[in-house]
Design brief:
Blueprint: E1 3-9, H1 17-30, E2 35-41, H2 53-56, E3 60-61, E4 67-68, H3 71-79, E5 88-90, H4 91-104, H5 114-133, E6 137-142, H6 152-165, E7 170-177, E8 180-181, E9 186-187, H7 190-201, E10 208-213, H8 219-229, E11 236-240, H9 248-254, H10 257-264, H11 275-285, E12 289-297, H12 307-319, E13 322-330, H13 331-334, H14 341-344, E14 348-353, H15 362-374, E15 379-382, H16 384-396, E16 403-405, E17 414-419, E18 434-442, H17 447-452, E19 456-463, E20 465-467, H18 472-477, E21 481-486, E22 491-496, E23 503-506, H19 521-531
Helix pairs in contact: 1-3, 1-9, 4-5, 5-6, 12-19, 15-16
The protein binds glutamine (GLN).
């Protein structure tokens, strides 16, 4: 029978529930169990695809084309499993499905209510994840903090699951904060006590507490928490601040967190195979070189907007024993005529232009791309970054001065980037981009082929616009190589400039497939080239 772990949060948000859930999942997987992960978000948006990245952070895309919360990126990076559309459930998804069923007449005769209709729908999403994944253990993280108005129906559904499945099949983890008060110099437990009280008022008694604190908690504090919160002392786990998030699974392993869960589930505690992760930590803690990479974007004030790109750069750095310092550059600032690009990029050994939407800041990105191209600085363009690399090349090398994308200039005379025919009739904005895995065929003898060492690859997409094949010939004549093509739809997937030290860009998002122990080939070679003198 599938076992279910739930992770809730208390006191404040931002305690790292996602990392806690992923770390535990990694440990359970390392003991031979098949795990699957899922996140519940309370907002009414059906998915985060239509939200501003400055508010919400990156939109992570699964292989089957679901636009999801960035925590799914952590999950995939930690457990190295591809998740899917059953992994991110929002209130919007739950409500639309209940309303659709009501209109169809599925509840004929009934008054449709929060309990049981909404809560049943939520429970079904948990059970569906268990059945479709075939996992031994499903770990579900509940977004927000307990007590939020929006979370009530989710918590109520979990209470029902606890009642239906019993404590041998469910495990509740509550993550909280233990603040340290300077002056009296003590750790305070009251916020945790109150937050556990809130949870218990809703009928859930947590099985474990994960307490975020600046340093390990004392025995006395654990005794106090155990007494006031009715949680076994051994089940109170320290989550101390760390420099590197990949350290957290090891910290939990040392506190036997996974063993505690398995014991409650009455599952055998098989031998853990985590040597590979310990080796990773060893590497990360002993990086002996460092380089700066410039990341040019328009959402740079919130680093979480580019979290998978930043992680992918770091992963590639680990392979070369190199710490990557990201030079976050606001593309709009580059547009100012007084900006001295030489000064901005003086320490940057590589330039990356990631994805984005809309016209704000694009001219600044184009300037950065031109600078990388003309100064032989390794360049990696992703999605919008590829589209702008093509526009820059068309304008400045092929002399098509008004080359642009119809995304920024609907009437432009030379739409080097344009809508695909099947996108022209799309009316809804949500969920209608070209999303998820598409095949790409690589051309032998190119940089892309050298990176991947195979001719067919599958990569994840999230875009509406495409390279316009009408301009392929003229760009080719001027030296651009189209090294990756989606043959089914004849779409350009990768471009490169062979005369340059390292200039490559993809229409897809390689950052979604990088893992700390397995850097993505495009990031790997980009960092390798950036390190090379
Ligand atoms: N805005 C561009 C498009 O829709 C690029 C999208 C992206 O970078 N993710 O095609």
């Amino acid at each position: 029978m599938t076992k279910y772990v739930f992770v809730t949060g208390g006191v404040v948000s931002g305690l790292g529930k996602g990392i806690t859930a992923s770390s535990l999942a990694l440990l359970l997987k390392s003991r031979g169990y098949k795990v699957f992960m899922q996140k519940f978000d309370h907002y009414i948006n059906v998915d985060p695809g239509t939200m501003n990245p400055i508010q919400h952070g990156e939109v992570f895309v699964t292989y089957d084309g679901c636009e999801t919360d960035l925590d799914l990126g952590h999950y995939e990076r930690f457990i190295d499993e591809e998740l899917n559309y059953t992994s991110n459930i929002t209130s919007g998804k739950i409500y639309s499905s209940v309303i659709e069923k009501e209109r169809k007449g599925d509840y004929l005769g009934a008054t449709v209510q929060m309990v049981p209709h909404i809560t049943n729908e939520i429970k079904n999403k948990v059970y569906e994840a268990g059945i479709s994944s075939g996992a031994d253990i499903v770990i579900t993280e509940i977004g927000g903090t307990v007590g939020d108005i929006e979370s009530q129906s989710f918590i109520e559904a979990l209470r029902q699951i606890q009642y239906e499945k019993g404590s041998e099949n469910t495990f509740f983890i509550h993550t909280t904060l233990l603040p340290f008060i300077y002056g009296s110099d003590e750790i305070k437990t009251k916020p945790t006590q109150n937050s556990v009280k809130d949870l218990r008022n809703m009928g859930i008694r947590p099985d474990a507490l994960v307490c975020r604190a600046p340093f390990p908690t004392s025995d006395a504090i654990k005794n106090k928490l155990a007494l006031f919160c009715s949680v076994d002392k051994e089940n109170i786990i320290d989550s101390i601040d760390v420099k590197n998030i990949y350290q957290i699974p090891i910290n939990y392993y040392n506190q036997k967190f996974d063993e505690i869960v398995l014991k409650q589930f009455k599952l055998p505690v098989k031998k853990a195979d985590i040597k590979y992760w310990e080796n990773l930590i060893e590497t990360v803690d002993n990086l002996n070189k460092e380089i700066e990479i410039a990341l040019v974007g328009k959402y740079v004030e919130l680093h979480d907007a580019y979290i998978s790109v930043a992680e992918s750069l770091r992963h590639a750095g680990y392979k070369y024993n190199t710490k990557i310092n990201i030079n976050w550059i606001d593309s709009e600032k580059l547009e100012n005529h007084n900006t001295n690009l030489k000064e901005v990029f003086k320490n940057s050994k590589g330039i990356i232009v990631p994805g984005g939407f809309g016209s704000r800041g694009i001219e600044g990105k184009i300037k950065a791309i031109k600078y990388a191209r003309e100064n032989n600085i390794p360049f990696l363009g992703i999605c919008l970054g590829m589209q702008l690399a093509v526009i820059e090349f068309a304008r400045n090398v092929c002399h098509i001065e008004d080359a642009s994308s119809t995304e920024f200039d609907a009437m432009c005379k030379n739409p080097i980037i344009d809508l695909m025919a099947d996108q022209k009739s799309v009316i809804n904005m949500g969920g209608t981009l070209r999303l998820g895995n598409y095949e790409c065929t690589l051309k032998k003898g190119t940089l892309a082929y050298k990176d991947y060492k195979q001719d067919k690859i599958l990569e994840r997409h999230r875009h509406r616009y495409e390279f316009n094949n009408h301009y392929k010939e003229i760009l080719k004549q001027n030296g651009m190589v189209f090294s990756g093509i989606n043959e089914q739809a004849n779409l350009v997937e990768i471009i490169e400039l062979p005369k340059h030290k390292h200039f490559i860009a993809s229409q897809f998002h390689p950052e979604f497939k990088s893992r700390p122990t397995k850097p993505h080939p495009l990031f790997d070679s980009f960092i390798e080239a950036s390190i090379k003198k």
